[in-house]
Amino acid sequence: MDRRTFLKTAAGSGTIAAAPGLFAPALAQGAAKVLRFVPQANLANFDPIWGTTYVVRNAAALVYDTLYGVDANLKPQRQMVESEETSADGLVWTFKLRPNLKFHDGTPVLAKDVVMSLTRWSARDPMGLMLKGIQKELVAVDDRTFRWVLSKPYPKMLLALGKNNAPCTWIMPERIAKTDPFQQINEYVGSGPMKFARSEWVPGAKAVFERFADYVPRAEPASWLAGGKKMNFDRVEWIIIPDGATAAAALQSGEVDWVEQPLPDLVPLLRKNPNVNVDIADPLGNIGSFRMNHLHPPFNNVKVRRAVLMALDQEDYMRAVVGDDTSLWKRLPGFFTPGTELYSEEGGEVLKGPRNLEAAKKLLAESGYKGEPVTCVVAQDIPITKAQGDVTADLLKKIGMNVDFVATDWGTTIARRAQKTPPGQGGWNMFHTWHAGADCTNPAPYTAIRGSGEKAWFGWPDVPAIETEVTNWFEATSLDQEKAAISRLNKAALDNAIFAPTGFFLVNQAWRKNVSGIVKGPLPFHWGVTKS
Amino acid sequence: MFAYILKRLVSTLPVMAVVGLFVFSLLYIAPGDPAAIIAGDQATPDDIARIRAGLGLDRPFLVRFAEWAVNILYGDLGTSIFTGQPVIYLINQRIAPTLSLMLVTFVFAVTVAVPIGVLAAWKAGTWIDRLVSTFAVLGFSVPSFVVGYVLAYIFALQLNWFPVQGYTPLSEGFGPWLGNLVLPAITLGFVYIALIARITRATMLDVLQQDYMRTARAKGLGKGAILFLHALKNASVPIVTVIGIGIALVIGGAVVTESVFAIPGLGRLTIDAILRRDYPVIQGLVLLFSFIYVLINLAIDLIYTVLDPRIRY
């Protein structure tokens, strides 16, 4: 081949490659009826009771319906339920379902399905377990009515049935809901606005949802899990893109419509793209944290835990996690979600004001700490935990602690954190994580706040005062009573340094400008979204 | 020959058995707990323990291994802990993208690498030779994910010639199928080209100095005939060996490339399974990859007999 022939060939190749439609992304006609969404994680299983990860809950919200649903004010509203009655003593609850509710297999939703679904749910959910503990009877009265009889009043009943924290009260056919709650179901039939296209499910790559023609949305406007869940798409395709840079590129090129959690580093780039919108994903945000193991030295000593809180500068953590955009984070001298009605800073002085390393060192010396190694487990494969771990290691060294930094992955971290053995025998002293703000609005879903010792969340703090206030909150019958209980709880938790909050932060979501109707919330609500 | 192939295939059985035992043992002692991942972040230790029991992960090592090994003998690789789907089904879902990627990479790499290796040897010591050597050094040095991002930025985002991510089955058209594979194949083929080009150059240099090459030139044969019919054929045994070894490299590289380009292949399945501690899937994939390696080695040995009639089994 001579030079001239080569150049002709090369030019021809370029022409072919540039020809529209040959190599370009295959966008079928009627693509406006398909929403392509990149979820935060892989949908590896689809049993929302057996597996309670956020991504499973988010997918379940499309396929399953709930009896009640919280709205944007965190108030539970009727969803599948048409009406409810409570006896004067608060012990008997009678619920009536809306008419014409159908499952995706065409069968009607009956009260017996609800009873069995609630039975399975109540074995796994913290609020469900409380209900189960005081349950005398849960029965179907007729096809549309079921009754729950309790041995003592449960004022938070509607919140339990409508909360957005996993596991929610997803309603399934009785035959499926009979499955042991610790075994995985193998049929995914709900009564929600979308059907799960199981034949197209490629775990780790794609999950497809198709519109359920028989779904009857409520008449009220949609608000989070409440109101009419009107779908404007025939298909919703969840495209799993594990690499954040690839997801951002796919959004820019128009191959996907909506990315649930773009990489914070790439948000400035996305903002510059004229075809892309970027905004806060969830106004309830997230609370960063590290847990200290109360079972073993040195953190079995409250003085050591308090010394760490005294030295801790949340700004260091937030800048490491989120960056320098100060609109995305704030200091958090407490444990509950800022901006919600139970938020409290009671007892938060230890986290406020200029940091005093000398005072922290002094308190550490008083505690009797003798330089024992602190096994600090840090998952390197999750940017949030890695960033927090690096800051913590530096913090501990500054106050004179001997850090044994264990760099590992999240899979190992969550296995290791369950070990109660001493750090030298496979246990741990501290690990890093974060909590969705939606899970920290009250004590019901907030397992990390509990102080029930061996039964508490990892770190196993034993603080009876916290448990007393949790009970007071559950039994409160007015908002003022609830606020008072939470204030006392917040103070007890900080006085005992049950864990270290490292700050409150927000994350963004991003979508193409031809997509509208996306709302901010604790999960990506697909109803009400349209695409031109 | 048939007896030889049969003997080699039978000899893979103990190899696979050792691999199986090794992988199973390694995963048993490796840290991590799939039950904790399934249960979610709010789960209590008791919840996790009950899920673990439900999955049968609390049973003794020997019981689990025996059950797995017996199932393997019946062709059952087990069931994914997370999806509840058979491992064979998951592999079947993912094998086409990976085979497609390997095929395009292989064709692309061999088509580019062998000619430039021959060219470098023929023009040894010239700027062409140095250019090929520089390219080879770059191919070995630059991580494939960097190559992938650069290619995606230029050819997908800026020029819009190719999609950024995903895979389109061949049944939906050759153009879309190839379009999704071009950038990943170049990414994956970068190091493969460097490897093959280097060995081609070195082997060709050696062959070109042989007496029979001088004879060929003295006979008045053209450059093309000398290089490709005489020299390359005699240099082909080590080249084919490296191509075969390189396929192992490609399988390893596919893990990264499939992640960068979001191709739903076996590489991503492997990564996902490892991160989630989905033991049956990991075990099934390692067995599959081991079997592929064994087959590749066998194929290479058989190709030797075609390339060099002196080799007989």
From TrEMBL, chain A:
Coiled coil: none annotated. One of its GO terms (biological process) is peptide transport. It is found in: Periplasm. One of its GO terms (molecular function) is peptide transmembrane transporter activity. The keyword Signal applies. SUPFAM superfamilies: Periplasmic binding protein-like II (SSF53850). CDD domains: PBP2_NikA_DppA_OppA_like_16 (cd08502). It holds the Pfam family SBP_bac_5. The keyword Signal applies. Keywords: Signal. It comes from the Bacteria. Residues 76-431 form the Solute-binding protein family domain. Gene3D superfamilies: Dipeptide-binding Protein, Domain 3, Periplasmic binding protein-like II. Belongs to the bacterial solute-binding protein 5 family. This is ABC transporter substrate-binding protein.
From TrEMBL, chain B:
Keywords: Cell membrane, Membrane, Transmembrane, Transmembrane helix, Transport. It comes from the Bacteria. The chain crosses the membrane at residues 12-30, 99-122, 134-157, 177-197, 237-261, 281-307. One of its GO terms (molecular function) is dipeptide transmembrane transporter activity. InterPro entries: BPD_transp_1_N, MetI-like, MetI-like_sf. It is a multi-pass membrane protein. GO terms for cellular component: plasma membrane. Gene3D superfamilies: MetI-like (1.10.3720.10). It is found in: Cell membrane. Its main location: membrane. Residues 95-304 form the ABC transmembrane type-1 domain. Belongs to the binding-protein-dependent transport system permease family. PANTHER family: DIPEPTIDE TRANSPORT SYSTEM PERMEASE PROTEIN DPPB-RELATED. This is Peptide ABC transporter.
